[in-house]
Write a structure and sequence with these properties.
Four Helix Bundle (Hemerythrin (Met), subunit A), 16 helices, Gamma-tubulin complex component
């Protein structure tokens, strides 16, 4: 027989669930993505077993879209996020040159609770997705998993863990995926196709002036021309001197693509400057007509500006060294001249020789 007491007992648990749901509706209003997951997780930290079980059930269901978006991002490098609820944000207006630094970022307000997605896993996921996009957009690698050393087994296992929502294994999964993608990225960048190591060595040899014979030949060739006022310096003449310095040194054996990128730059004169003040070497990271070239992204404008400042400082030091060497050659008395001085007994000549010797000692 149904009585009010029995009915009240039957409805007690559903009523408590409805009260919990009403509270959740109020606190979750207007929230989405990781922000919503954080609220559900926090509401589940209660001593009421029924409320805790309900919140966990809702959290598991609400996490399903997150796992789907994360899987899509990790394996395809694509954001399927029309409502902007994923914790990775993209700015399509950023050019490929700044893809790595500026196009993708973490959306802090949409980060899930750290118990579900650790912060280290979120950062690693961001890096892995960026690497896939870099491979696709800058290197023409449409299928980053093909040819990766870890093989497709690791990708399949990671995708299965994400599909099942295994939060405890998420960090391990993301590290495994990131390791495969990063290894593939290194293989592509340092392959004969892009030869990143050759470009980095070229920057070291030519902009950081490590190639001594080339630097000496260039200094000898351009010295007289750069002594002129800056307004009279000809970039075409300097380009010819650069080619002559390459031919006169071991730089001639360098890769043709590397030498084609090495150029002369003459800054606009501000007035009262000499050619030394406006001359510099530059390394062209962008190749006209090359749609796929990762070098402008690896060495963006900010990095090349730092190389330019380093070259300017080192070039001034080399110029000072070159001037000191020339002064040394002029001041150093020859043995024949010393013999003449001793034989003639001329006090004047001996005084000149002594002053020259003192000057040489000061230079040393």
């Amino acid at each position: 027989e149904l009585t009010l007491r029995r009915l009240a007992v039957w409805l007690a648990e559903p009523s408590a669930d409805l009260a919990t749901l009403a509270r959740l509706v109020a606190v979750c209003a207007g929230r989405g993505g990781g922000d919503l997951l954080r609220v559900l997780h926090n509401e589940g930290q209660t001593g009421d077993p029924a409320a805790r079980a309900l919140c966990r059930k809702l959290l598991s269901a609400a996490s399903a879209p997150l796992w789907a978006m994360l899987s899509h991002w990790l394996f395809e490098g694509e954001l399927d996020d029309p409502c902007e609820e994923f914790f990775v944000a993209a700015d399509p207006a950023v050019p490929d040159e700044y893809l790595w630094e500026m196009r993708y970022s973490l959306r802090e307000g949409m980060l899930p609770p750290k118990e579900l997605v650790p912060r280290s896993a979120a950062a690693a996921a961001l890096t892995a997705g960026k690497a896939i996009n870099f491979l696709r957009r800058c290197c023409g690698e449409a299928a980053p998993w093909e040819g990766a050393s870890a093989g497709s087994e690791a990708a399949s296992a990671a995708e299965k863990a994400l599909r099942e929502g295994d939060a405890t294994g998420l960090a391990r999964t993301v590290r495994a995926v990131g390791g495969v993608v990063n290894q593939r990225l290194m293989e592509v960048l340092f392959s004969d196709r892009f030869n990143l190591s050759a470009h980095l060595m070229a920057l070291k040899r030519y902009l950081l002036l490590e190639q001594g014979d080339f630097v000496q030949a260039l200094m000898d060739n351009v010295g007289s021309h750069l002594d002129q006022p800056a307004a009279e310096v000809s970039p075409f003449t300097l380009a010819g001197h650069l080619e002559a310095a390459v031919r006169a040194s071991n730089a001639e054996a360098d890769h043709p693509d590397v030498l084609a990128r090495l150029r002369v730059r003459v800054a606009p004169p501000a007035g009262g400057e000499s050619g030394w003040d406006v001359f510099s070497l530059e390394y062209a990271v962008k190749r006209p007509g090359a749609p796929l070239d990762p070098l402008p992204t690896v060495l963006d404008q900010q990095a090349m500006d730092k190389y330019a400042r380093a070259f300017a400082m080192l070039w001034r030091l080399k110029r000072a060294e070159h001037a000191v060497a020339a002064a040394w050659a002029l001041a150093k008395p020859s043995s024949a001249l010393q013999r003449v001085g001793r034989q003639s007994g001329s006090a004047t000549l001996r005084g000149v020789l002594q002053r020259m010797a003192a000057h040489r000692a000061a230079l040393a």
